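Dig into this one:

. . .
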Amino acid sequence: MGTVGQNYKNGSLRVSIHGGLVLLAVAALVSGCARPAETDARPQRPLKAPPAPVADLQADKAVVRAARLRAEQARIAAARRWGLKEVPLTAPPAPVTKPRITTRDGFEVDGHEKGLPPVFTTIPTEQKIVFLTIDDGAEKDPAFLRMMSDLKIPYTAFLSDYLIKDDYGYFRKMQDTGVVLDNHTLHHPYLPGLSYARQKREICGMQDVMEKRYGTRPALFRPPYGNYNEDTLRAAGSCGIRYAPIWNEEVFVDHWEYREEDQRIHPGDIVLSHFRGREDWKGTMPDMVRRFLDKVTAEGYAVARLEDYL
């Protein structure tokens, strides 16, 4: 019977082969190694993962349905807890292509054609959405933060430093929930009555405060009282402001006010309110939110995030 003898010498392997069977085996090995190129030349098909079992796909769908049901139940419970007449409608997804924002007719100043921040009261859209914006920062109601977080209602805050500096942390909590904090000047003056230099100090100074306290320089600025002139917008642009939204309606705890003669809300309208409480209103900020949501929901509107459209 054939044998294979192996020994090591000087670090090399020597193999002595005896017997016909071994020769046949070697011949087979040589034959098998003679065509590596032919085997390697064959195109290699990428491996494909096996399809997921039908049971797994059905289980995934069931998980998604269950999550949606829980979310809807949470919305219903939150609406009931905060005393709303109906569950607020959910806004559509943010547009992939943003609408073109221009200054509203009649709101122009000299120089608007030179690229000044546009002043507008409405976002151009046919969708039944409105945008809630809240100004100044005087009232710091913890219940308001809980309400908006529970209901998952988006809004934008325009802040003035002289009113928020006693509690920057309140608005940091607001920012942590996804609310965008924007510029409403340092001291809330009537800007057209100031020189360009003083207007710039008011606007750029607030940019500095926002960056220091909240880590970002806003792209949005709302002039106090909605009043501005060319110097206002030139100063704002020099401070990094890109947009100057004002409003088409204002909501209080006990009534609404409208810019349009038809006294109605419209798709894309920007709604104004203020950080106020019982000292200034006949109610609280949650009372204001209830009035706002009950009306827009009853008329088939959802509340969207303003920054998603800019």
In short: The two ends are 88 Å apart (CA to CA). The CA atoms of residues 80 and 147 lie 11 Å apart.
